[in-house]
Specification:
Helices cover about 40% and strands about 20% of the residues. The longest helix has 17 residues. Bound molecules: NADP nicotinamide-adenine-dinucleotide phosphate. NADP nicotinamide-adenine-dinucleotide phosphate binds next to helix 4, helix 5 and helix 9.
Length: about 290
């Protein structure tokens, strides 16, 4: 069926800068088409100085929903009327729902990561998790994992960020969460007791595709490894983990499931995961993840 844009078509989109390489239009338009929903999804390049105007535009044009990406995830908060509990805690939002002019903020990054793990056969409940990074995505993932994980260790290049976030999470979840410096020896040491490793730094991302924070010999078959970097689809860490016999979850999976949660918020329909995965991988020039 061809997508027909008409008078009643509802608009969703993603705002960010840069935005040209986003996979969201491919994923969401494929999903709208598959479910025969009268929606269209567009990408809008919005500079920092134009964020307020963009939010006014969302209200003025009655845009139903937006994904918000770099660099606006924190700055967008001040324009939103109502914030999800995790948005309040994280101080960042990646999804907005326009409910008759009231802009509601959500953060689906952490939930997306959790779904990506679970849907790929990894249940973090009671598990020992090593998380690399304490940037925006890492904080959202840590927040979601902290509720279920048995223990969580957050390592970051700037160690204070990891320590502050670990303290904040411990105050809420009363769990054993530690934060520290991301040195090779700390990664090696903490990996020995870990069941799940998540790379939530940008290390390994295009064009630095030959970089990884984890030496191949530290990886084991009984480890689950999720690298949230999705460009390239298979990072050096993912390749090394696969070669070591570990279970590997691609960053595309997190992208997919965070998008799926946003899709449900905007449309009220469960997202067609397979359709969205195929569309995202097609845009990345891949037929499948294996
Ligand atoms: N799959 C998905 O759905 C999804 C969603 C969001 C983001 N991502 C990806 O996740 C990555 C991080 O995104 P973000 O939004 O969290 O960015 P961010 O807020 O800028 O955080 C970047 C993180 O990477 C660390 N880092 C950067 N260069 C490093 C290096 N050379 N050595 C060690 N650590 C380094 C930073 O450490 P410092 O704090 O010490 O600088 C920080 O922890 C990006 O590649 C992004 O594309 C994927």
């Amino acid at each position: 069926m061809k997508m027909v844009i008409a008078g009643k078509t509802q608009v969703c989109g993603v705002i960010g800068d840069p935005i040209a390489h986003t996979l969201s239009p491919a994923m969401h338009n494929a999903a709208f088409k598959h479910l025969k929903l009268d929606f269209v999804f567009l990408a809008f390049k919005v500079k920092t100085a134009d964020l307020e105007n963009a939010v006014r535009g969302m209200r003025g044009f009655g845009i139903r929903g937006l994904n918000v990406t770099m660099p606006h995830k924190t700055a967008i908060i001040r324009y939103l009327a109502n914030l999800d509990a995790n948005v309040k805690f994280l101080g960042s939002a990646n999804t907005i729902l326009n409910d008759g002019g009231r802009l509601l903020g959500f953060n689906t990054d952490g939930t997306g990561a959790l779904h990506a793990l679970r849907e790929n056969g990894v249940n973090p409940e009671g598990k020992n998790v090593l998380l690399l990074g304490a940037g925006g995505a890492a904080k959202a993932i840590a927040y979601s994992l902290a509720q279920d994980a048995g223990a969580l260790c957050i390592l970051n290049r700037v160690p204070e960020k990891a320590a502050v976030w670990a303290d904040a999470l411990n105050r809420v979840f009363g769990k054993k969460i530690v934060g520290g410096a991301l040195s090779p020896s700390a990664v090696q040491k903490n990996l020995q007791d870990a069941d799940i490793l998540v790379n939530a730094t940008s290390v390994g991302m295009h064009p630095h595709v030959d970089q990884s924070l984890v030496a191949p010999q530290w990886l084991r078959p009984d480890l689950a490894v999720m690298d949230i970097v999705y460009n390239p689809v298979e990072t050096k860490l993912a390749k090394d983990a696969k070669a070591a016999g570990a279970r590997v979850i691609s960053g595309v999976e997190m992208l997919l499931y965070q998008g799926a949660v946003s899709f449900q918020i905007w449309t009220g329909h469960a997202a067609p995961i397979e359709v969205m995965r195929t569309a995202a991988l097609k845009q990345l020039g891949r037929d499948e993840l294996k």
